[in-house]
C-alpha cells in the first residue's frame, strides 16, 4: 500500500526543505539545517548566537531527467569561548550531506568517485554527461586521488613483482597481499633500495613470494632476514625449459650431424636466403675468433675490448647460440607449425591446400604466408644432400625431446632416437629437466638436493647453479602453498588501467585506482 511522503524525504537527513522551484531543466531545492545550534570547529563549544547567513549551492543527484541543485542556507555563529581563535565560524553539515568547501553533496561525490575508479577520466566524463552530472574528466581523476584510503592492515604474506611503465626502459614494483588478494602498494621503480625501505617499514611480514629476480631477494634478506622467501613455481618451470632449450641450441651442430643435414647447396637458395647463408659464414669466422680467444683464457671483458663486439654477442657465441643458418622472425604461422609439419609429412605439399586446411581449423593468416612456408620447405629439402634428413629448428627439437614417445610420429621418434644415441649428455639433460618438472608439480622438495648434485655436472649446469644460489627460496616453493600467480594477475589489471589512462597514468593515480578497486 502506498504511503504518504513529504518533500523532506528527497533530502539527506538533517536538512529541512524551504522551497522547491523548477528553473528550466534544473530543480532547485532551498533548504537549511534542522539544528538550532552549532559546535565551534576549534574548541567544540555549542553556540546559538547567529552572526550572519550565506548560501551554498552544492550539486546533487539528478531527478526525473533534470539536474538538481541544493541551495543551503548556512549560518555563521559567534563562538562564546573568549580564548578561542575562531571568533566567528560557519555551521558544519552532517558528513552524509556535504563536506566543507565541497561543491557536491556526499552522495553525488560518492557516485563521482566510483565512476572515476571504474572508468577513469574521459570515459567517466562521457557517461556522466548522459547521466546529467556536471563533472569534468579532471574532477573524476582528482576525486580518485583525494579519496584514496590509506591501508592500515598489516600484511603477513605478500607477493612482489615488477611491472613495465615502458617495456624495456622503465619498471615499477607491485606488492600484493596474498591472503586478502588485494594490491597493497605500487612503487615507482624496482630498485632494491626502494623495496628494502618499504619492507623495513612493515616488520610484520613473514612470507614473501617473488620471482627469481636477485634484486628483490637481496632486499628481502636485508630488510626481513627472518621472513621466508618463496620462488614462483611458474618461473621455475619456465627457467628449466629455457635452460634445456639453451642446451639444445648449443648442441645444434652435433644434432645436424646426427640427423644428416651437414651442408647446404647455395645454388638452390633464393637471393635472400643466399645473403643469409653468406652472413652465416661470416658469423662462423667471428665465432671461431671469439672461441679461440676464450680457449686461450681471456676473460669476456678482454674479448669485448679486443674485438669491439658487444658483451651480449660474445656470451651468445660462447654459449653456442649463433649457429642457425636461417633466422626466421615470429609470425602468425608460428603456433601452426606443428600442424603444418604434420600435413607436410602426410603428403600434402600444396601451399593453397595447406592454407585451406588451416583455415577450416581457425587460422586467420593469409595464403601468402602459408605458400612462402611451403616454398621454403621444398627448397630446404632440395638443398639437403641425398640420403640425409632435414634438421628441424632447435625449439622444435627441444619439444620433441621433452614429449612422450607415445605421442610422437614414427619419423619424429626415429629422429629423437638418433639424437639421444649421438648425444647422451643431451638425453641426460632432458631426463633431469623432466625430473625437476615432476618435483615442482608434485611438491617433492626432499629430492631437490640430490637433483642439484646431478644437474651441476650436466648440460643444464648454469640453471642448477642459479637454483643452488637461491636454494632456500626454491625449497620453500616446493613446500609452501603460496605462489606469485595472484601478483601476476594484478599486474594484468594494472596494464589495463594504465592503457585506459594513457598519458595521465601517474603513480599516485594508478595506486589509487588499483588499491581502491582491489
Describe this structure in words.
Among the domains are: 7-103, no CATH class; 109-146, no CATH class; 157-232 and 483-517, Nucleotidyltransferase, domain 5, CATH 3.30.420; 238-261 and 391-462, no CATH class. It is α+β, with helices and mostly antiparallel strands and 518 residues long. A hairpin with a 3-residue loop joins strand 9 and strand 10 (170-177). Strands 1, 2, 5, 6, 7 and 8 form a six-stranded mixed sheet that branches. The two termini are 42 Å apart. The protein has helices spanning 106-119, 122-130, 137-146, 192-200, 214-223, 233-250, 252-259, 271-295, 300-307, 311-318, 337-345, 351-360, 367-383, 394-402, 410-422, 424-442, 448-455, 461-469, 471-477, 485-500, 507-517, and strands at residues 15-23, 26-33, 38-39, 46-47, 50-56, 59-63, 66-78, 88-90, 157-166, 170-177, 182-187, 207-210, 228-231. The protein has 21 helices and 13 strands. The chain is elongated, with a radius of gyration of 34 Å. Mean pLDDT is 82; it is low at 383-389.
Amino acid at each position: 500500500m502506498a504511503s504518504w511522503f513529504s518533500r523532506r524525504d528527497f533530502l539527506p537527513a538533517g536538512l529541512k526543505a524551504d522551497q522547491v522551484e523548477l528553473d528550466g531543466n534544473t530543480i532547485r531545492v532551498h533548504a537549511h539545517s534542522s539544528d538550532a545550534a552549532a559546535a565551534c570547529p576549534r574548541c567544540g563549544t555549542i553556540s546559538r548566537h547567529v552572526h550572519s547567513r550565506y548560501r551554498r549551492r552544492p550539486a546533487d543527484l539528478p531527478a526525473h531527467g533534470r539536474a538538481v541543485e541544493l541551495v543551503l542556507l548556512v549560518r555563521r555563529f559567534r563562538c562564546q569561548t573568549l580564548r578561542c581563535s575562531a571568533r566567528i565560524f560557519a555551521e558544519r553539515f552532517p558528513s552524509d550531506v556535504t563536506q566543507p568547501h565541497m561543491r557536491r553533496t556526499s552522495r553525488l561525490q560518492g557516485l563521482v568517485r566510483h565512476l572515476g575508479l571504474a572508468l577513469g577520466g574521459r570515459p567517466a566524463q562521457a557517461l556522466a554527461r548522459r547521466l546529467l552530472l556536471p563533472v569534468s574528466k579532471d574532477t573524476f581523476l582528482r576525486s580518485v586521488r583525494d579519496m584514496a584510503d590509506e591501508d592500515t592492515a598489516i600484511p603477513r604474506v605478500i607477493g612482489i613483482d615488477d611491472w613495465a611503465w615502458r617495456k624495456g626502459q622503465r619498471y615499477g614494483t607491485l606488492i600484493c597481499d596474498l591472503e586478502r588478494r588485494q594490491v597493497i602498494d605500487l612503487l615507482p621503480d624496482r630498485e632494491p633500495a626502494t623495496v628494502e625501505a618499504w619492507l623495513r617499514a612493515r616488520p610484520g611480514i613473514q612470507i614473501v613470494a617473488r620471482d627469481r629476480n636477485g634484486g628483490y631477494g637481496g632486499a628481502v634478506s636485508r630488510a626481513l632476514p627472518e621472513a621466508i622467501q618463496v620462488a614462483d613455481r611458474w618461473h621455475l618451470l619456465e627457467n628449466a625449459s629455457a635452460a634445456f632449450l639453451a642446451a639444445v641450441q648449443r648442441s645444434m651442430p652435433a644434432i645436424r650431424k646426427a640427423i644428416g643435414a651437414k651442408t647446404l647447396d647455395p645454388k638452390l637458395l633464393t637471393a635472400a636466403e643466399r645473403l643469409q647463408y653468406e652472413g652465416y659464414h661470416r658469423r662462423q669466422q667471428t665465432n671461431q675468433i671469439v672461441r679461440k680467444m676464450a680457449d686461450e683464457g681471456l676473460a669476456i671483458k678482454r674479448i669485448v675490448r679486443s674485438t669491439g663486439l658487444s658483451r651480449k654477442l660474445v656470451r651468445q657465441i660462447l654459449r653456442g647460440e649463433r649457429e642457425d643458418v636461417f633466422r626466421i622472425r615470429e609470425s602468425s604461422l608460428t603456433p601452426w607449425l606443428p600442424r603444418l609439419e604434420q600435413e607436410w609429412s602426410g603428403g600434402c605439399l600444396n601451399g593453397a591446400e595447406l592454407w585451406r586446411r588451416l583455415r577450416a581449423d581457425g587460422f586467420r593468416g593469409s595464403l601468402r604466408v602459408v605458400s612462402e612456408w611451403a616454398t621454403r620447405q621444398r627448397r630446404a629439402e632440395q638443398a639437403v644432400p641425398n640420403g640425409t634428413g632435414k634438421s628441424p629448428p632447435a625449439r622444435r627439437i627441444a619439444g620433441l625431446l621433452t614429449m612422450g614417445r607415445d605421442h610422437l610420429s614414427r619419423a619424429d621418434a626415429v629422429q629423437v632416437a638418433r639424437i639421444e644415441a649421438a648425444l647422451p649428455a643431451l638425453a641426460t639433460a632432458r631426463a633431469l629437466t623432466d625430473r625437476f618438472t615432476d618435483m615442482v608439480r608434485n611438491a617433492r622438495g626432499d629430492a631437490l638436493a640430490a637433483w642439484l648434485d646431478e644437474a651441476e655436472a650436466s648440460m643444464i649446469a648454469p640453471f642448477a647453479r642459479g637454483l643452488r644460489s637461491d636454494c632456500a627460496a626454491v625449497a620453500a616453493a616446493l613446500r609452501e602453498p603460496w605462489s606469485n600467480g595472484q601478483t601476476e594477475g594484478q599486474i594484468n589489471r594494472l596494464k589495463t588501467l594504465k592503457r585506459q589512462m594513457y598519458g595521465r597514468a601517474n603513480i599516485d593515480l594508478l595506486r589509487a585506482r588499483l588499491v581502491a578497486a582491489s
